[in-house]
Design a protein that fits this description.
six-stranded mixed sheet
Length: about 250
Amino acid sequence: MNARIRFPALLLLACMAAATARAGQVQVAVAANVAAPIRLIADDFQRKTGNVVVLSAAPTSQLYAQISQGARYDVFVAGNDVLPARLEAARKAVPGTRYTYATRVLALWSPREGYVDAQGEVLKDNQFQRLSITSPDLLPYGRPAMQVLDRLGLRGEVTDKLVERRNAADTRRFLSGGNSDLGFVTLSHIYKDSRIERGSAWIVPTSLYDPIRQEAVLLETGKENLAARSFLFYLKGPKVGQIMRSYGFHR
């Protein structure tokens, strides 16, 4: 086996062995939009290391506010890449530990079976009445939808049909209620067990919008916690990638 390939695997085993020898507890602040797969990952980590992972799930902005005010979490698994960077700049996160653990995928979705084709031609045909999007003023989910429309040269044609919602989850609920023909959502909102749960969708090529990154970081309050460092490293592993993809995320 190539040494360059072998080294990360050996390092992961070493970190896990060290954590097992001194099993501890990890307090993880996790974004609500990624709580389900992270819970599976945490269970697997616990079985393999003996460490206990305590998850606290909430919107990323709410967790950020708690951490800024002194909440004692060890690891922050965020739903974007903006707030972990702010914590690092404010010296509430350990420099050099922040990284992208997943990226979100944009999809054009309708709850109607067969309505959205696999190439997204329904968007170009422009026969729909309303197109739902997350407000472009909201980061990180609002801007990508507008980038897709711009790069396809469609913004001017569909502007009068746009219906803005306050966030990605609200966009999905609005669509599910039959209030719009189709809309842009993140794939993880309509995807589970490696398939779209209902309706029809076009998975938008990532070349049409900027990456929607989600970052994790070791917090200053967890700086000396070996189990926390081990968990953060474990998030980079291949099994984690498999779980995240089954929920509609990319690595």
